[in-house]
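Why should sequence recovery work at all? Because a backbone constrains its sequence more than one might expect. Tight turns favour small or flexible residues, buried strands favour hydrophobic ones, and helices have their own preferences. The token representation captures these environments compactly. In the example below, the structure is given first.
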């Protein structure tokens, strides 16, 4: 993955005492730091504000709650997951990224400085519900690791999560920025996961991300350092020859990592709202992702026709089972009908799926 070097770091008043500020100052010695009383609204005169905002980094206090329930998608089976938003937006550029629409009115690439509040809020929740096993991810509106060499977030929070008896923290990424994790002891409480696609898809639609081999090398290093791993085949893309590419990718993954240390795999096909499609047409006009046939689903997202989705998932599941007969596999944002056709069952509710995933990973 290419190194990230912002044109400037904008620091909101009250963030200078944060460890994130100190880490940024150390990691970006040649970058100007601009101090402002209030960051206000993200402002741009560019005809691509979303792309422009990826060039500079904002450090500010987060004023609301850090933790929330993953919103999931209407009518789809959900996996009872919680998210912590420690940052917003991402320095990489995937053509299909839903943040282009979700953050259209607030596109600043922002990191939150009050990590102490994040830890206090999480500790309060985990302590209140010691009988419940939480899965918490940080990759909902940012990439969990792409900024880590500069902000040092992992070294500030992994030691806290490592000591909690009822949580698994998932760090989800398309980068290879794992150095900050390697010297820490996760004590079985941290899963590092990669969104995976064949190199052909990465080249065409996952700009500025790590290559497939770089992601795998990083996964191997994390596994050797004691982390659990996970992989998300999401978004799966259908194109002429996809079967050969995805099958080879699955085989390659399991030739590099030990399948017994893989906590889970997920599968999900490409999905976009009509609004996101319009943005993609403007920002990535040559992407072939706009040309495939899709149907509008009850959650307002466009997906491939259901029979095609089921066929894709069944094929992937077959290749996964050849390499790892026992690894836990689930579908992301899919309907009960699709679950039933792929696995022969559908979880009765989100708690059941969450509990199944927790059961295979908690020890
Ligand atoms: S890595 Fe994830 S968050 Fe970043 S641009 Fe790609 S899809 Fe969006």
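From this structural description, the recovered sequence reads:
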């Amino acid at each position: 993955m290419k190194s990230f070097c912002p044109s400037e770091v904008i620091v909101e008043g009250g963030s200078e005492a944060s460890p994130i500020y100190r880490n940024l100052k150390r990691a970006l010695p040649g970058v100007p730091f601009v101090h402002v009383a209030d960051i206000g609204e993200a402002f741009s005169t560019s005809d691509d504000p979303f792309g422009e905002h990826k060039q500079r980094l904002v450090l500010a206090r987060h004023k609301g709650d850090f933790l929330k329930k993953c919103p999931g998608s209407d009518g789809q089976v959900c996996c009872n997951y919680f998210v912590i938003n420690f940052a917003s937006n991402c320095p990489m550029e995937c053509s299909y990224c839903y943040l282009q629409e979700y953050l259209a009115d607030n596109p600043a690439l922002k990191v939150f400085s009050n990590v102490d509040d994040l830890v206090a809020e999480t500790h309060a929740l985990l302590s209140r519900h010691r009988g419940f096993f939480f899965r918490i991810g940080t990759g909902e509106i940012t990439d969990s690791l792409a900024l880590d060499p500069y902000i040092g977030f992992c070294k500030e929070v992994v030691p806290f999560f490592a000591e909690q008896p009822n949580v698994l923290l998932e760090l989800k990424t398309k980068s290879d920025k794992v150095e900050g994790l390697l010297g820490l002891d996760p004590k079985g409480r941290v899963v590092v996961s990669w969104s995976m696609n064949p190199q052909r898809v990465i080249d065409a639609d996952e700009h500025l991300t790590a290559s497939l081999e770089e992601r795998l090398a990083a996964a191997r290093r994390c596994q050797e350092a004691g982390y659990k791993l996970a992989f998300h085949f999401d978004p799966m893309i259908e194109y002429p020859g996809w079967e050969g590419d995805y099958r080879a990718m699955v085989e390659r993954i399991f030739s590099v990592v030990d399948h017994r240390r893989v906590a889970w795999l997920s599968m999900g096909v490409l999905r976009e709202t009509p609004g996101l499609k319009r943005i993609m047409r403007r920002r990535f006009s040559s992407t072939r992702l706009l040309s495939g046939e899709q149907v509008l689903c009850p959650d307002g997202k466009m997906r491939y026709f259901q029979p095609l989705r089921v066929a894709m998932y069944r094929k992937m599941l077959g290749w996964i089972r050849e390499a790892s007969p026992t690894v836990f596999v689930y579908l992301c944002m899919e309907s009960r009908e699709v679950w039933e056709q792929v696995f022969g069952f559908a979880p009765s509710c989100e708690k059941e799926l969450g509990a199944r995933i927790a059961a295979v990973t908690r020890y």
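A few observations help interpret the result. The chain is about 35% helix and 20% strand.
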